[in-house]
Design brief:
- The complex is a heterodimer of chains A (about 170) and B (about 500).
- Chain A is built from six helices and nine strands.
- Chain A is an alpha/beta fold.
- A five-stranded parallel sheet of chain A has the order 2-1-3-4-5, sandwiched between helices.
- In chain A, helix 2 runs parallel beside helix 3.
- The longest helix of chain A is centred in the C-terminal third of the chain and has 15 residues.
- Chain A is elongated and about 55 Å long.
- Chain A starts with a strand and ends with a helix.
- Chain B has about 500 residues and is an alpha+beta fold.
- Classes of the chains: A alpha/beta (about 170), B alpha+beta (about 500).
């Protein structure tokens, strides 16, 4: 189960990031300012950081700098409302792995998250198991005791999140 | 002047047009005009001084000639009156012929001088050795004069100046004594001197012109730099400067130009930041709306929540766009429509409106009684914005005071709160666009509120001030406007 730290001060933005990432099998933690982002990234084991540049207390660049200075090598995807080339270059130079400009399609962010995790060699868990219930997140197919059934159904969300919840423990 | 062609079309057309201008520039350029004026001036002074020199020398020659003539005549008359005839040892008496003979024996004429004598109207003797007849013929009209006479006569070797005196013996005019001095030689010398002086002056003129050309070029170099820099400046590159050294007018122009560029660069930077900030403020709600819609499921509760959230974000965007438009309007002359406003009535109306903003301890601190010329609607908007800010920075039950006063031709309207005040670091920039206080959330607005208040105050010819005299115990924002119609504000700082 991949753990993703979301550093975003806008609660409504963080809310849909959490929701979307969780429904795709990621476990997320959200922090609202730069100082706590550095603290959490230091303390806990996260596979990836989604970092907003315009954070209060410490801005995204500072967070990046401090993390890299502390030897944290986790992939960082920067979110920014500025598509200035200078900002992009500066973000990447500070040690960001990818740069997503607001507004973005959630699918795009998700794809980038997956690419980064794969590049880091972190095995992304795409099949969730819970007892004899398995759910393939890529193909969206669920099987109970080996009997496959299409999960392209409203209830798949429920089973997916319950599987994800179960898999956390 | 060397020019390099660049592939850019605009740049090359610019160069072409500059080349076309070049021949015209050569004729009408400042350097050429300075040089032309200089040469004309110098040539004129050379001409005048040469002519003056020649005239002065001529006059001196004339004086000298007259002196010499006078001297000769004086010597002759001394001889005639006091001298003795060497043959008889007695005074000459009436023997004019003897006087002339003795004079001619004793005197050797100076250069250019010639003495002629007439006896009884007939030519007698002369010191001139050439063309005796012609010279006598030229001065023949003087042969029978009875009073001394000065004048010029044209001789075979040029003009000559003469002084003729009659010689009288016992009341009878017997002879005439004439001294002439040739002027040709003297005049030629004067002309030569004038020519030499003119030649020297012309040489000096040439050298001075050359120097003037170089100096004018050097003096004008900063101007050329100025032009080139001005041409090289585009919206994207405002970083170049003239950097003129010195204290003269052109250096001053360079400094002025540089200062203007500084302001221009700052204005462009501000504009760029503004657009960037505005983009940022619009992108955040768009991202939120898009994200929530993309992840919208089938759950009716979730749908309802999402619709509410999306509507709220759209309202926020709409308010933001309204604020932006308002600020853009503030740049225009018709931003405020002024009329006579009763300050006391306005204050009371503001108090009523403000109290509806939230449960606070609203206090009316003072009412200024009188009339002001102002835009009631805009002024209300500004004060309500301040009241709204005060509500956001206080909690239920906190005190917020409103008030107005009239003094010294100015009306003051203030909103004072008992909140946390404004940190010293933020006080300077708090009225700038998008300047949220440190740690402020987006939910408190886009940071345009105080910028709008300032725009409204300045449109009235007034100002808005923040008073945080007691740190940590609230902020007082005061809008001060003149009671009389203010002259239109030409340029407001952004």
């Amino acid at each position: 189960m991949n753990r993703i730290l979301i550093a975003e001060d806008e609660p409504r933005l963080a809310a849909f990031l959490e929701k979307g990432l969780a429904s795709n099998g990621f476990v997320t933690t959200t922090v609202g300012d730069g100082a706590r982002a550095v603290m959490m990234a230091d303390d806990d084991e996260f596979d990836l950081l989604v970092l907003d540049l315009g954070l209060p207390v410490k801005d995204g660049f500072t967070v990046l700098q401090e993390l890299r200075a502390a030897g944290r090598r986790m992939p960082v995807i920067v979110l920014s409302a500025r598509d200035d080339v200078r900002d992009k270059v500066s973000g990447l130079e500070h040690g960001a792995d990818d740069y997503v400009t607001k507004p973005f399609r959630f699918e795009e962010l998700l794809a980038r998250v997956r690419v980064r995790l794969r590049a880091e060699g972190v095995a992304e868990q795409t099949v969730l198991r819970c007892g004899d219930l398995t759910l393939d997140l890529r193909t969206r197919r669920a099987s109970v005791g080996g009997a496959a059934s299409s999960s392209r159904h409203a209830s798949s969300r429920c089973s997916r999140s319950s599987c994800a919840t179960a898999a956390r423990y | 002047m060397t020019m390099t062609m660049t592939p850019e079309t605009t740049a090359s057309t610019e160069l072409v047009s500059r080349r076309r201008r070049w021949p015209r520039r050569l004729l009408s350029g400042a350097r050429t005009r300075i040089l032309a004026a200089f040469i004309v001036l110098l040539a004129l002074s050379t001409l005048v001084s040469t002519i003056a020199l020649r005239e002065i020398l001529q006059a001196r020659v004339g004086e000298r000639v007259e002196r010499s003539l006078g001297q000769e005549v004086k010597e002759f008359s001394t001889l005639a009156r006091q001298g003795n005839n060497p043959l008889t040892g007695k005074p000459f008496g009436s023997d004019v012929q003897a006087i002339f003979d003795v004079y001619f024996q004793r005197n050797v004429p100076g250069e250019g001088e010639a003495v002629f004598t007439f006896i009884d109207g007939k030519p007698d003797q002369t010191t001139a050795d050439v063309s005796r007849q012609q010279l006598f013929a030229a001065i023949a009209p003087l042969a029978r004069i009875t009073a001394s006479k000065r004048g010029e006569v044209a001789g075979p070797q040029g003009d000559a100046r003469y002084l003729a005196v009659p010689v009288a013996v016992k009341g009878r005019h017997r002879g005439v004594f004439v001294v002439t001095i040739a002027l040709g030689q003297e005049r030629a010398e004067v002309d030569e001197a004038a020519q030499v002086a003119a030649g020297v002056s012309l040489t000096v003129l040439l050298l001075a012109s050359l120097l003037a050309f170089v100096i004018a070029g050097r003096v004008l170099t900063p101007l050329r730099q100025l032009t080139e820099t001005a041409q090289s400046i585009t919206e994207n590159d405002l970083t170049r400067r003239i950097a003129v050294e010195g204290e003269d007018e052109i250096a001053e122009l360079g400094h002025t130009f540089d200062a203007m560029l500084d302001r221009l660069q700052a204005a462009f930077a501000t504009q760029k930041d503004f657009v960037s900030d505005a983009g940022h403020e619009l992108r955040t709600p768009i991202t939120i709306i898009r994200g929530h819609l993309e992840l919208l499921g089938d759950d009716p509760d979730e749908r309802r929540e999402t619709v509410e959230l999306v509507c709220d974000e759209l309202d926020r965007m709409s308010r933001f766009v309204d604020d932006l438009l308002l600020l853009a309007q503030a740049e225009q002359a018709d931003f405020i429509q002024t009329a006579e406003v009763d300050l006391d009535a306005l204050t009371e109306a503001l108090m009523v409106k403000a109290s509806a903003l939230g449960p606070r301890e609203w206090t009316l601190e003072g009412i200024g009684v009188g009339r002001v010329t102002a835009d009631r609607q805009r002024l209300t908007q500004a004060i309500m914005q301040l009241a709204q800010n005060a509500v956001q920075h206080t909690v239920e039950g906190d005190r917020i005071a409103l008030g107005s006063a009239l003094a010294n031709g100015h009306a003051r309207l203030w909103v004072s709160d008992s909140g946390s005040g404004v940190p010293a670091a933020d006080r300077e920039r708090i009225f700038d666009r998008f300047a949220r206080g440190a740690g402020a959330r987006r939910s408190q607005g886009a940071g345009l509120g105080l910028a709008i208040v300032r725009a409204i105050a300045e449109a009235h010819g007034g100002r808005v001030e923040l008073d945080c005299a007691r740190p940590g115990s609230g902020a007082t924002f005061t809008v001060t406007i003149p009671t009389d119609p203010a002259p239109p504000q030409e340029a407001r700082a952004t």
